Each structure stands twice: as C-alpha cells, then as structure tokens.
C-alpha cells in the first residue's frame, strides 16, 4: 500500500480494489463498484463491526488523509480489508454483484466439487454463519447440496461472513436455469460383489422384527420362543407346558 502511486483519486481507488481482489488468496472476491461503496445506505450498521471504521472507509475510497505511525496504519489497513469483506457480502446479492459472481462461477473460479458422482460440478462460496469471526468460508455444491472445505489454506482462512449464508441460494433463485439436476448416484460398499451395508441393515431390521414378534407371542399367547445359534432348530414352548415339566 505504501508503494501506490497515482495521479488521480479515482485511479487510486480502482487500484486499491484491483489490488485487493488480485491478492493471492482473494480469488473468491469480486470487485465492488465504487458507487456502491460510496453510498452510505449500503454500509448501514457496519460502523459497530469495524475498528477505525471511518479511516478504513476513507482508505478504501481513497480519501484517506491521516498522518499516523506504522502500527496504526497497519490496523487501519486490516480494518479496511474487514470492511470490504462485510460490504462484499451485501454487494454479491445485488443484481450487479450476482452478475459478477455468476461469471466467476461459470469459469469455475471457486473450484469443482470433489465428490466423484458430481462430475466436477462447479462450486460457490458460502458462509456457515453471518457473524464475523465465527466460521471460515466453505464451498457449496448445488448438485449434491453439500458443503466442502477449500483446498487452499489461504482460502480456508477467509471469513465466511464475507459471503453470507444466503448467497448461493439467491443466485439460483435469480438464475433458476442454472439449477443442476440432482444426482441419485450413491456409492454402494461391496465385498466380492455383495452390498455389505445393505445386507447388514436388513439383518438388523429382521432381528428387530423377530424380537418384536417374540415379545408379542409371549405377551398375547404366553408362548416363549427360544432361539439357538447354528443349525439347531428353534423351539416354541408355552408357559403352561414349561410349568408342567
């Protein structure tokens, strides 16, 4: 930031925003229009969320004119990045913001789903919480409707509040033609061709039903069913027969 040189304020503003979105690890962000940033209505409520709010806003909009030491300057720059992220979460659900994120989605800038049966379907960034400093950003797949952690540690460190919990769903409401067909394909565990999990689940269900039947026989017909392991035959003995022995 100290190396920035520009002849006009607008050049500096564009350069700061270009620098921010071009920074390695910021590939998920789109550039916020200057008109949106300078409309105070769009920033309502953010003053309480960001330290050095006014200085940070001045830095983003290139009207920063405050003589301070390096430590304070670093804090202001950190606040500027946080403020940009929080405004970004609001911007990307506007018409213009959705268009910009749609272009990135089409180019798979957010990556592809790691699930095999999704066939490398493109992902969208999403937050698991709208509260800052709560959850890091995740990636949402519209095909399997699940979320995944980013592969890059730089992306994984981004605050999920900078994208919000609603963005992908709003995008598909505005552009319903992009909603993919859901895949019914599921991996089925097999041992030598046999569906192990399905068989195990069926066996547990059968055993439960058998136990319930035995309980009903005992309560209603006073017949106690004794079951044995191996090839031995099962015996059904009434309570009266057992008592007469």
What do you see in this structure?
- The structure is a single chain.
- By secondary structure, the chain is mainly alpha-helical.
- 42% of the residues lie in helices and 9% in strands.
- It has 9 helices and 7 strands, in the order αααααβββααββαββα.
- The strands form 3 sheets. Strands 1-2-3 form a 3-stranded antiparallel beta sheet, with no helix packed on it. Strands 4-5 form a two-stranded antiparallel ribbon.
- A hairpin with an 8-residue loop joins strand 6 (223-226) and strand 7 (235-238).
- Helix 3 (53-60) packs across helix 4 (70-91).
- The chain is elongated and about 90 Å long.
- 24% of the residues are buried.
Explain briefly what this protein structure is:
The chain has nine helices and seven strands; from the N terminus they run H-H-H-H-H-E-E-E-H-H-E-E-H-E-E-H.
Approximate shape: elongated
Q: Give the topology string: H per helix, E per strand.
A: HHHHHEEEHHEEHEEH
The helix content is 40-55%
Biggest beta-sheet profile:
3 strands, antiparallel
First-last Cα distance = 97 Å
**Spatial extent as radius of gyration:** 30 Å
Q: Which regions are unreliable across 5 or more consecutive residues at pLDDT < 50?
A: 1-13, 228-245
Tally of individual helices: 9
DSSP E strands, number: 7
Derived structural class: mainly alpha
Strand order of the largest sheet: 1-2-3
Mean pLDDT: 82
